[in-house]
Amino acid sequence: MLEKFITFMITGRDDNEEGATAVEYGLLVALIAAVIIATVLLLGGQINTAFTSITDKL
């Protein structure tokens, strides 16, 4: 256990980084989803108006 801690402190790496990578990807997905939801909520009305205008002109 102490050897793993020393190795981590010296190299800054852990032998098993797969869990951390999965957590990081999960956080990125959550952030992207939050940005998409916020954008739709903020611009949804304007986008709907634009599509309605385009549809009416067709």
Overall description:
By secondary structure, this protein is an all-alpha fold. The protein has one domain (1-56). Helix content is 86%, strand content 0%. The chain contains two helices and no strands. The radius of gyration is 23 Å and the shape is rod-shaped. It starts with a helix and ends with a helix. 0% of the residues are buried. The mean pLDDT is 82. InterPro entries: Flp_Fap. Pfam families: Flp_Fap. The chain crosses the membrane at residues 25-44.
Name its key features.
58 residues; mainly alpha; transmembrane helix; Flp_Fap
Lay out the secondary structure:
Layout: H1 2-11, H2 18-57
Summarize the structure.
The chain is mainly alpha-helical and 58 residues long. It has helices at 2-11, 18-57. It is 86% helix and 0% strand.
Which word captures the global form? rod-shaped
Order of SSEs: HH
Helix and strand content put the structural class at mainly alpha
Structurally, the number of domains stands at 1
Low-pLDDT stretches are: none
